Inverse folding.
């Protein structure tokens, strides 16, 4: 049985990034993925920003980027705020493959079709059982998604609160705004969540919804009926759903010999449900911290807390602020959301959703008596 410095479980955005950064930091690294190929198996809107590429350390090649799109955020009365900044609609499988290929170039071993079934810590090492082999590693990075086997094996029961989502990829759409990713809010449309239409090319779009306390499929089908002018003749090419952890970071994502990252640890921006960038960043930091700890011979949780400290400095703060905004907005009635849309500009929505300069927006909203009580004071 070969001993690795760092063993990464799962080749989503968190895992491929972790494997690359651990190998780059000089650790003997292996990445295990249960699927037969590195690809985006879980449903995903595949929308992300330019900065994701910077964090992942790859260039935004045309083979990964399908197209650029601005964003339109709709209030329940269908008025909208334009966010005139281009984001990317990506081919996530190509993104993962590119980062995994860089990990391999850095010397990481990559093994697909290997499902991790359990792990335990004995004599200061993590012993990892796969369907095909048993592996030994100084540090394990659990990047195996929301229903993490690594977390379960480590006895970590805490999970970030999920929102259930369903997404169709639809062909034969007649999109009114083929260059815009559109987000639709409101209790009638998507209770405690939002619906989206993300164009993927000519007449092709990802149409999805995230809701809490209601059936996502039921609301998605209602949404599609409502948009029958654009989606009435469209056909479903792909129909999948998955939980998205939008309740913020779990409190214990580091134990002796292991770090949890990505959806397994709740590294998703709560209000948007965006996890590609946040989990890529978590993977990069975890890979570095794990490699340094393994090479120094101290893989205690105290040492691995270096991950928590570094992630918290930027992303942890953003995630907490975005969660606060989500909690404040989820209690608002549709008529309040309509009023909010008349006051916010694109950059205000970006700041609120991403947990950036929330205070600035809250101060601006304080001038409006009703919103000061219902929203702004909760954000201060
Ligand atoms: C419908 C939907 C739409 C979304 N849209 C967007 C979006 O537009 N933009 C955005 O930024 N985010 C979006 N997200 C969120 C984003 O997809 C996730 O946050 C992100 O993929 C999390 O990455 P991850 O690496 O933590 O986990 P995952 O992407 O879930 O990857 C986990 C990997 O681990 C593997 N694995 C699992 N168990 C094992 C095991 N036992 N052994 C070996 N391998 C294992 C899996 O096969 C998988 O490859 C969306 C999510 C959903 C559900």
């Amino acid at each position: 049985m070969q001993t690795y410095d760092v063993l990464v479980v799962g080749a989503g955005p968190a895992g491929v990034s972790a494997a690359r950064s651990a190998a780059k930091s000089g650790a003997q690294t292996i990445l295990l993925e249960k699927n037969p190929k590195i690809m985006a198996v879980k449903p995903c809107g595949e929308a992300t920003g330019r900065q994701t590429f910077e964090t992942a350390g790859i260039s935004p090649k045309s083979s990964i980027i399908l197209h650029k799109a601005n964003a339109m955020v709709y209030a329940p009365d269908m008025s909208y705020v334009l966010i005139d900044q281009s984001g990317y609609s990506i081919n996530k499988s190509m993104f993962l493959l590119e980062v995994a290929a860089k990990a391999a170039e850095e010397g990481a071993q990559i093994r697909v079709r290997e499902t991790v079934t359990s792990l335990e810590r004995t004599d200061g090492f993590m012993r990892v059982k796969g369907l095909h082999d048993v592996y030994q590693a100084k540090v394990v990075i659990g990047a195996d998604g929301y229903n993490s086997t690594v977390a379960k094996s480590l006895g970590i029961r805490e999970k970030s609160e999920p929102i259930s989502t369903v997404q169709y990829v639809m062909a034969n759409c007649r999109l009114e705004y083929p260059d815009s990713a559109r987000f639709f809010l409101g209790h009638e449309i998507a209770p405690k969540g939002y619906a989206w239409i993300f164009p993927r090319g000519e007449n092709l779009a990802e149409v999805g919804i995230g809701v809490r306390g209601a059936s996502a499929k039921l609301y998605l089908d209602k949404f599609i009926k409502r948009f029958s002018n654009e989606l009435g003749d469209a056909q479903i090419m792909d129909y999948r759903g998955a939980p998205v952890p939008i309740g913020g970071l779990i409190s214990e994502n580091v134990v002796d010999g292991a770090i949890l990252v990505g959806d397994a640890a709740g590294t998703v921006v709560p209000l948007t449900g965006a996890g590609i960038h946040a989990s890529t960043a978590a993977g990069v930091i975890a890979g570095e911290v794990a490699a340094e700890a393994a090479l120094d011979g101290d893989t205690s949780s105290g040492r691995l807390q270096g991950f928590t400290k570094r992630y918290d400095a930027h992303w942890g703060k953003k995630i907490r602020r975005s969660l606060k905004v989500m909690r404040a907005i989820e209690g608002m009635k549709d008529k309040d959301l309509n009023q909010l849309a008349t006051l916010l500009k694109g950059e205000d929505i970006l700041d609120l959703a991403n947990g950036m300069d929330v205070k600035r927006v809250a101060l601006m909203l304080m001038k409006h008596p009703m919103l000061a009580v219902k929203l702004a004071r909760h954000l201060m």
Residues 3-67+88-160+247-321 form a domain with the FAD/NAD(P)-binding domain fold (CATH 3.50.50.60). The chain has twelve helices and 16 strands. The chain has three domains: 3-67+88-160+247-321, 162-245, 323-379.
